[in-house]
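batch job 7 of whatever, protein = Glycerate kinase
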Amino acid sequence: MTNFEPRHFLTSIFEAAVAAADPELTIRRHLPEKPKGRTIVIGAGKGSAQMAAAFEKAWDGPLEGVVVTRYGFAAPCERIKIVEASHPVPDANGLEAAKLLLQTVSGLTEDDLVVALVSGGGSALLPSPAGNLTLADEIAVNEALLASGAPISAMNTIRKHISGIKGGRLAAAAWPARVVSLVVSDIPGDNPALVASGPTVPDEATRAAALRLIETYRIALPPTVMAHINSPAADAPSPSDPRFARNEVHVIASAAVSLDAAVEAARKQGVETVILSDAIEGEAREVGGVHAAIAREVAVRNRPFSKPVLILSGGETTVTLRAKGKGGRNSEFLLAFAIGIDGIAGIDALAADTDGIDGSEDNAGAFADASTVARMHASGVDAKAMLAGNNAWTAFNSVGDLFVPGPTGTNVNDLRAILVR
């Protein structure tokens, strides 16, 4: 590891993980059989526009359609319309996009094919209030969920019970056409029904389960929303519904595949690598503290792994908002990690969201090392106070350690890479 620059190395690991989820590679491997009738492409998520562009290149035949992605995440397409909307809090553009998707799949026949390009972020991008609910109700639900600290699986179980498009309802609207869903998973465990709250993939979770989750995580929702979830109108289609019998679902990219690619990239550079898990969940600051304890043990006692070593993990942590600071789950994880390794030489880390955006700012995450907390202190920033105020972005920005690769065109959740030299 002579002349080894840790941050360049960690950036290369991130790039390898993202490349393994490149839509141009993954979609070609999962092209469905051509239909007798029309081919309609629909989609939603932070990677959906790049998926649409890749599908256009790969598909040898006529097609049409529409996908919705986050503002600034569009990609040029010739035959598929790209609509942009707000993430992580829904807006009116998303509401219109959801209506357009439902219109696009209406009136199809059993000879038609619907290809659904689904990636993380689709839950916020497709607001479609059910029953007498309004966009304001759906925004209130999203804000409450984001502040609750509930895992993404719980959030999406609740979301689908207030929606007219999630929980398989979009696929049901396309019946009798066959629906093939190509899913880029950002969900720990890779259950496709939970990615973007499953607009084309139903699951078994009931409204009773949603009510238990609301109680478990003490989520305060508007009375109108609670009244809806307590009514039969909230029931989502069952996977056994005959309208789904001909449909197919393929997870074409995931954290597990990207972590394997990161391992290979590290080993090519002579660094042995271990994967803790591709499905880590929990409070970001607590997970950061645990990762810091592991890194300290390796640095100081050369156990449970022998250094030099790269320690990787994936999954999606959560942040329970205690204040109104700037940040995201990766920067919050890393600030807790930086506090935990303060002054321990030979440790460098990168935590980043593979879609290129962590929270509401323009960074994917940040870098940290043994000097991070001291450098923050020298710039007038108290790292522990920043962590307490959910203000990790401000802390890392103060020392120039934000990681800003820009939108990547995919989304297989978070990558945490810790190098112990």
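notes: The chain has a mean pLDDT of 96.
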